[in-house]
Every structure is written in C-alpha cells, then in structure tokens.
C-alpha cells in the first residue's frame, strides 16, 4: 500500500439530503441485506473515443474513513428531520463492504462498470454522491489529459489550470489526473507536496510589469535564480524580447527557456526559434501557453511549430468541451436478486457485472464484453478486487498507475485515438446479461 | 460581521509555483512597495448578457487567514528550490493589505474590476491563484443560476448538482452561489450546515428498485416520513406510477409532490397533472429534474408545463455551456506608477479603477463607466471598501446578498436578460483612463 497519492477527504455531510433520508429509511425498514451498485458512464461525450479511469485512490480513502462525527450528528438533530434512533444508527455507520474496480489509468467505454460496490444497502447507498463526484471528475480530466498527450507526442506537458479550475479540490485533483494520464508536471504546489508530482513554474506578466523595464526584470529574476530561468517574453513585444534574451544569453545569463503566452503561437514560435538559433542560443527551449487544449496542440504540432513544451490550463482543468460525464452509480442487485430501472433513455443492465477485454495480435484492444460475473467470456477481466470488508487491498503507486495509463493509451485502436470524429469501441452485451434483463423485467413488472 | 457563510479554506500551497518563485524574488530584490491588482473578466462568455459577482466572502476568509505553517515550510525546504532566508520571509508573511470590491450579488460586465487589492507587492502577488479560483467559480455559477431564475419566474428552484460538480469544494460553493442568485434550496447537506441554505431531498431510483414493487416502496417511504413525501415516479412507467400515487392519496398517505426525472417532461407533466387533478389530488405538486438548464426551463415554462419546481443539477453546477470565465487578476500599479500589459488580445487598462453605474428613470441600469478612482464620473460607485489592513469590514449576510442579487437582476436592461443572443452592457472607458494608458505606454516602451 502506498500513501503518496492521498487527497484531503470531504465530510460525510457533503452528500445529497436524499442519501440520508434513504439510509435512515433502510435502517428503520430493516433493509440491510447486501446490495450491489456499479459506477459507469452511460455514453461518451462528443469527440471522446475512450475514457481513462481515475479517482479510485480518493474513492477508497473516502470509503475507509467515512463516518458521522458528534458535531455532524448534533447538527442533523437540530434540523428536526431525523429521529434519535435514526441518528444513533448513523453514529455507528461505517463502510464495511467490498469494492472491485478497474485499476486507475485503465481505458474504458460506455456502459462499462469501472467500480462495483457490494455492501449492506444503507452503506452502499450513503456513499453514492461522493463516489460519483470523485470518479466523474478525475476520469474526465484524465481523459482530456490523455488526448493532450496523444496530440503532443513526446513534447513536454505541464498542467497550469489551478486558477480557473472549479474550486480548490478540482485544481488539486486535476493535477493528479493529468499526471496519471501522461503529463510531465504541474504548477500546483500542493499537488507536488501531496502526490509527488514534479513542479513547473516560471514568472507572470506582473513580474515584468513591476519592473521599470523588461530587461531589468529578466536580469533580476536570473540573479535570484542562478540555476536557470524560463523568461516570459510576450508582455510588451515578443520579438523585441527575444532579442533581449539573446543579449542576456551572450552575457552568460542562464536562460533555460522562453515562454509565449499570447498571439499566433505558430508564427511566434517560428520567429523566436529563428532569432535564438541565429544567435547560437539553440539550447534555449520554447514553452507555449494560453488557451491551449488538445486540438490546438495538434494544430500547432501539425504545422511544425518549434514548441518544446506546452503549458495547458483552463480548458484542460475544466474539460471545457465536455465538462461532465454522463455517469451514474446504480443499484444492480439487492438481497440476491438482480434489479434494473427502465426510465426512458436511462435503462440499465441488471446484476453484478464484469468487463472482459480481448486484444489483437498487434497488442491493440479488439473488443470488450460486458457480462455477468459468473459468465464464461473470452478476454481479460478488467475489474479486480480493491477493497474487502471496508479495508483497501494493496494498490499501485501513482507512478505505477501512470505507467499503466501509458500502456493503455498505446493499446487503443487507432479509431479511438482520433481527437475529432473518433470511433469508440462499443462493448458487446453478453447473452447472459440480456437474459437477465428479460428475467428482471418479468420479476419487477 | 456574520459567520454564516464561511467555507473551508485551502492551504497556502494550493497555488502556482511561480507565485512562490516571484514572491521570494520580490523579497530578495526588496520590491515590497504597494501594488494594486484588480480582478476582472476580459469578455463575457457566449450567451451571457451579464455576470453576477460571487465568492467575495470566501476570498476575504482566505486573505484573513493565509499563512505558511511549519510543515509547509519544511516541505518547501525539502524541494531545494528556496534558500533559508527566503523561507524565513515566507514564515512571517501575512496579508496586510486593503480590498475594495463590488458586494456579492452585484451585476457586472466585461472589463469591470469587481475586486481591487492594494498591498505590498509580495502579498498581493501571493494570493493571485486562489483569488481567481474562488471568484471565477462562484461568479460563473451565480450567473448561471440567475439565468435559471429568470427562466423559472416564480417557480421553485433547487440545486441538485453535487455529484457531478468538479470536486468537493465545487459542489459546496455551487450550492452557495445558486442560493445567492435566487435558488430556493439545495440538496447538498453540508451547504445547509455551513451556509444555512434550505435543504431539499426526496428519494432515488435505487429506493424503488430495492423494494419488490413500486407501491411497496412508496408506502414504506411514507411510513418512515409521515410528515409528507415527494415520490419519484419514473423508475418503471410514469403514468402507471401516477395512478398508484392517486390510490395512495385516497388512502390518506401524505404525498406532497411527485418527481419526474426522465422522458418528455412537458408531455409527462401535463399527463400526470391531469391524472392527479381528475382524482382530486390538486395539491400534489410536480417536481421536474434530469438534464435541466436555463434554456430547457424556459422551453418547459413557455409551453405551459404544469411544473411547480425544478431540480437543476449537472449543467448548472459545472456551468456546462460556459465552464470558465475569461477572468484575470492583473497588476495595475506598483510603487505609485500605473502599469499595463500590451500582449496581443490581452492588453489591460492601467491604474486603480472604479466602476460607476447610471440608472434610468425606470430604475433599470443604463450605463457603466470604468474610470480612474480619482476621476469625477456620473453614477453610483460600485466598488466599496471590504478589507482594511488585512481585516475584513462588516459584510452582509448571505441572505442580504441574496436580496441584493434579486434587486440587481430585476434592474437589468431587458436586452441583458435574454438567455440567447443577449445584448450585454458595454462599459464606457473614461477619458482619464484612456489618457493614463497613453501615458503608461510612453513610460514603459
């Protein structure tokens, strides 16, 4: 077990009121037999040919620690919504169930459960809101980051998105999800501290502006950071600043890189590269940032922009073109009987399920099958035990999950990798699962 | 001063590395004179005719408490990036500056500063990432929520978005921003506890599915909650369930409302209303949820759907059509001299500014002017002192801010209120500000 990728938890009351209403009803009704819930994405957002599973580590942290403390119980009492005996039951509630899941960094597709909870019904119900909240966000960001990695090839990628991430936790966990999916670094210091992610940071325009002129700012920054600096060169006039950088290099100032943050990045990167190279500053790298996403990175690289490193921010950390997944956590079985809903457009496949994946001779993914756990289906089963009786089993480190994600992304069929108009794998539904759905519909008319 | 709308803070290391790099450089360079930074939105997202300011309370909390603790300093030391004297300076760093801001709930437009920080340069710089992170998110959500309020008229609105909000804090602060902008309630329990927001909650499909049949589930739920229930009726067959509800009402089961969560909400609400009314169940209200946003609410109300209450979730809590604001926190003055950047497409107006608003005889907003603070400009000045020397001044309660937001939204020009193709106010730029920009460009060539 590793502890290198924990994040702060959320209080148990960071949940929907109806979870508490239902949990206390289940207690009162003595409905505490084993339930099976599964988390899956109903359909992929537009332009997504695959998804990357992330957030399991935080989900397990949550399940291991979730409880009601005395203050929370007193506050619940003060609302007048809960009877004393209901609050007593909440006081002793812990998560004691089992979890099976795809390892973080795994590729998955529409309808495939990536996490299955088996626990007494009240426990399995209580944790719904936060589990969705954790798995939705990190999987969405890991997917977006994987698309950036595909677009960037071997160029370096840094997460710059904290400031416009949707809140503190989003900024922190986005950094983690990006690194998991193949980014090299983040600017978010706390993510470096908590998860061991390499940090990146340079200077802002304000640093230039606070000085009387740009060269003075460059010089001062390099004096304070003598081991090497990245200089931001677009505050006033990018090309003029590139010539200033050349002059500094000739004086022996250790300039590692220059950063472009505005304007036509393709044209400016070419012009700046030419200025640097003509002056013998070939070792000064070019970092580009400003309104980037995977499509813009692909465009810049496709026209041969001499950019060594991309800083990707806002559009990555909020997954701007697809800011949520159509994901759910649904009851599939209770008290030994499979269940499903049939709501218009939201029907589910019943029972506890496994996803099996077949690979072609080239090592690429060929086909996935969603089946009942006890069916015999070809391929490698993707959901593995990760928690038993409320205690987590040994988990890979964030670095190991990152390597796994790299292998998964490399094994994607070509059609899944396209940034626009992708062809996602469509999982097969096993005969056993289809039969189970018919049986359930007869049992729950 | 009230304490009813605090949220948990974020650690000081939840920032971009370059803030620490710059702050330590400013300390080393003895650049600690007063700087002025302003937070503003460069341009409104598509389909936004106005924005609603939110997040100030959390921003002030952050500024009042931000500091480096011993563990954080030890970790920074362990990175090898900072010299001992730099860390010593960080250890004693507190925010001691002044803040002027538009009150929460105020309407604002492109280019208008809603918050101005005046503080020694290292302090003003340090807080950039988190201030943007807080003000961007809540203002964006308050704006989306205000649009829902415009669409819903006097119908009730509840925030259901926690599960697909981008992380824990996003869910929590989205609930606050929605309430501020006119929502009636939230499902997020912790937001009820921290902010005193009224809570809403019913049952999930899993509750129905865990029972042997739907009627048994309805009956059990009502038995546990004898003061009245909202029953979810779309798990299997909505119209059949509506008839079941009628039968229960006739038995004396206290049904407050039914909830529709899928299908054609306009058609189903009419059909369910007819079934209920024909049976004398006119007092049973209809709650609708499922993929709602302001445009869908407007569509449903425009066709006369008999929906009493809307539960709005994912698309609200992530502001799905505009998941970030193009917002910045920019240095405008240092050591008594105005500054600005001229980067392509990102140039700023220099100096410390005020926004003045003129109203028409009908009480509607007529024109805003952005000017230097010491210019004489017609209209009401919108930025007010909220913090002096690092201590907050008395602030309105969340309820008072909510009333202010209601008045602000009511005073919007009609063209700003349109959900599609709105005509936002375009603030005037004062003569003094234009002259200042020319002067700064001469001073910082």
Q: What's this entry about, in short?
A:
By secondary structure, chain A is an alpha/beta fold. Chain A contains 17 helices and 19 strands.
CATH class of the largest domain in chain A: Alpha Beta
List the strand order in the largest sheet of chain A: 13-12-1-5-3-17-18
Question: What is the helix fraction of residues of chain A, given as a range?
Answer: 40-55%
- How large, in whole angstroms, is the Cα Rg of chain A? 25 Å
Distance from N terminus to C terminus of chain A (CA atoms, Å) equals 46 Å
What general form of chain A does the structure show? Answer: elongated
Structural class of chain A, by secondary structure, is alpha/beta
Strand element count of chain A: 19
Largest interface: A-B, 99 and 99 residues
Whole-number tally of structural domains of chain A = 2
The main β sheet of chain A shows up as:
7 strands, antiparallel
Q: What oligomeric state best describes the polypeptide chains here? A: homodimer
Number of helices of chain A: 17
* Residue windows where pLDDT falls under 50 for at least 5 positions of chain A: 1-8
Secondary-structure arrangement, i.e. CATH architecture of the largest domain in chain A: Alpha-Beta Barrel
CATH superfamily of the largest domain in chain A: nicotinate phosphoribosyltransferase
């Amino acid at each position: 077990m590793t502890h290198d990728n924990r994040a702060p938890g959320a209080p148990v009351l960071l949940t929907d009121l109806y979870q508490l209403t239902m949990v206390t009803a289940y207690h009162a009704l003595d409905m505490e037999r084993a339930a099976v819930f599964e988390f899956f994405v109903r359909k992929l957002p537009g332009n997504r040919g695959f998804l990357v599973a992330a957030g399991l580590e935080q989900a397990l942290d949550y399940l291991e620690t979730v409880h009601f403390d005395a203050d929370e119980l007193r506050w619940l009492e003060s609302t007048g919504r809960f009877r004393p005996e209901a609050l007593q039951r909440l006081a002793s509630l812990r998560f004691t169930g089992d979890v099976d899941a795809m390892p973080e960094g795994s590729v998955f597709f529409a309808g495939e459960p990536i996490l299955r909870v088996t626990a007494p019904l009240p426990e399995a119900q209580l944790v719904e809101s936060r589990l969705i909240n954790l798995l939705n966000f990190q999987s969405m960001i890991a997917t977006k980051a994987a698309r950036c990695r595909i677009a960037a090839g071997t160029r370096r990628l840094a997460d710059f998105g904290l400031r416009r991430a949707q809140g503190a936790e989003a900024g922190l966990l986005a950094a983690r999800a990006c690194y998991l999916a193949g980014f090299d670094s983040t600017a978010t210091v706390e993510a470096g501290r908590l998860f061991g992610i390499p940090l990146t940071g340079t200077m802002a325009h304000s640093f230039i502006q606070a000085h009387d002129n740009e060269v003075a700012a460059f010089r001062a920054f390099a004096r304070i950071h003598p081991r090497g600096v990245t200089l931001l060169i677009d505050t006033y006039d990018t090309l003029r600043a590139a010539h200033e950088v050349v002059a500094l290099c000739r004086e022996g100032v250790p300039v590692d890189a220059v950063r472009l943050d505005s304007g036509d990045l393709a044209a400016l990167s070419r012009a700046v590269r030419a200025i640097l190279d003509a002056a013998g500053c070939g070792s000064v790298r070019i970092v580009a940032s400003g309104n980037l996403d995977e499509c813009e990175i692909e465009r810049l690289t496709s026209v041969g922009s001499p950019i060594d490193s991309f800083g990707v921010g806002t559009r990555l950390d909020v997954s701007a073109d697809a800011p949520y997944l159509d994901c759910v956590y649904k009851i599939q079985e209770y008290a030994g009987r499979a269940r499903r809903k049939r709501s218009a457009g939201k029907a589910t496949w019943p029972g506890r399920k496994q996803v099996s994946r077949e690979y072609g001779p080239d090592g690429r993914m060929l086909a996935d099958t969603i089946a009942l756990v006890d069916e015999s289906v070809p391929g490698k089963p993707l959901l593995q035990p990760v928690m038993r009786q409320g205690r987590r089993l040994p988990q890979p480190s964030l670095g190991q999950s990152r390597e796994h994600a790299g292998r998964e992304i490399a094994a994607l069929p070509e059609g899944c990798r396209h940034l626009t108009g992708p062809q996602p794998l469509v999982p097969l539904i096993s005969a056993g699962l289809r039969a189970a759905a018919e049986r359930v519909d007869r049992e729950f008319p």
